[in-house]
Each structure stands twice: as C-alpha cells, then as structure tokens.
Amino acid sequence: MNDTTLKHWKEIRKPAIITRIGQALMKSIGIKPDLSKLMLQGIGYINLGMYKDAIKIYVQAVRLDPDNAEIYYKLGNAYSKMELFNSAVHAYKLAISKQSKYTDALYNLSITYNKIGMISESIEMTRRVISVNPNMINAYTNLASLYGKEDMHKEAIEPLKKVLSLRPQSAEARYRLALTYVELYDRNSAMKEYELLKKLSPKMAAGLHSLITR
Question: pLDDT value at position 154?
Fold first, then answer.
C-alpha cells in the first residue's frame, strides 16, 4: 500500500477497545450516535463527487459501527471513485467478512480486481457472485468479458448463453456470442447467431456478417 492508503487504514484500525469504550460511555450517558445521519452525509458527498469527504465520513461511521458491512461497502466505493483501488479492495473484503453473501460487495470487488489487472481473482470473485445470485445478468456479462481477456473463448460461451436465457432480446449478448464463435473458428454457430441477431438489430447484424465471412 502507498502512504495515502496506509494513512486511511491507520485511522480505521485504531484499537477496537477505544471504540467500544466510547460506545459504552455514550450509551451510559444516553447519547446515541446518529449513524444514519453520517450515512446520508456520505451519500451526499458521493453524489457531489466529493469522494475524499465521503471517505472521512465513512471512516467515522466505521468507528461507530465496526461490524456494519454496508459502511465498508460504501467506503470501498468511495476509494474506488478516487482510484485508490488497493484501499477499495480492502474495504470490500471487510464488507464481505461481515456479510459473506453481500452480492454488491462481491461484485464490486470483482470489478476492482479487474481494474488492477488481477484477472484470475476477478474471475474467481465473479463466479462467487453468481453462486450467490444466479440471476445477476451483469455478473455473467462480466465473466464472459474476463474470459475473453484471457483468450478463454470456449469458457465465455456459457455465461453469454445464460445472459440470453435471462434476457432473450439482448442484441449485445447475441452479438458477443457470435463473435466468440468467430474467435473459435466455429463459422456455423456464428451464422446461427447472426440469423437470430438480424431480428433484434439489423444494423449490428450487418457489421457482424462481414466479420464472419471475411
């Protein structure tokens, strides 16, 4: 981690006993920290593009509720917006450690892995997303793209077919499936997808035909 990243996490990882003592003290004298207010502030800063301020808010929120998966997830999103990807990965992992089937955190972790070139880890995490939510179209689309990056075109076929089973009218998925067959030199299968694509998007089909027949 770089110096900036370490600074952020040093703030978060102050001894847990201090946080618990502070919470106990506030409870004993009747003070209830308004966590929901902090969360709303964080969302507001994110919407305004004030990501550094959002990070500060979510760090405060973590101190108030260190077992809250949503806070770590939102903190990860803020880090990602600032392209502090190592910190984002760490935050998403903490969210998942608190809530193992947190689909959004799992998915965003897979996307962040992809951004920093950790393709194998991204593939593994995307598969995990699918195991938790087998109807998440974006996960299948992402998985197919990752396989394509690794020249694993045969493996990309199944997730693209799954997208089409969930969304039969997706011209983009049909087009990408045809291109995958082209990469595999399976002209017959590519032509079948081309014929189906013509009904969905003649314009996309026209461009595809030249790629199949070249």
Answer: 97
- Closest by alpha carbon to 114, among 81, 79, 150, 74? 150
* Burial class (CB within 10 angstroms; exposed 0-12, middle 13-18, buried 19+) of 7: exposed
Question: DSSP H helical segments within the chain, as ranges?
Answer: 3-12, 16-28, 35-47, 51-64, 69-81, 85-98, 103-115, 119-132, 137-149, 153-166, 171-183, 187-200, 202-213
Query: Please, what CATH class does the domain formed by 155-214 belong to?
Result: mainly alpha
Q: Where are the domains of the chain?
A: 155-214
Convert 154-165 to b/e letters by CB count within 10 Å (16 or more is b): ebbbebbebbbe
For 15-52, write each residue's pLDDT tens digit: 344 345 445 544 543 434 588 899 999 999 999 999 99
- Contacts of residue 160, defined as CB under 8 A and 6 or more positions apart, other chains included, come to 140, 141, 144, 173, 176, 177, 180
Q: pLDDT tens across 47-103, in order? A: 999 999 999 999 999 999 999 999 999 999 999 999 999 999 999 999 999 999 999
Is 140 within 8 Å of 163 (Cβ atoms)? Answer: yes
Q: What is the mean pLDDT of residues 177-192?
A: 96
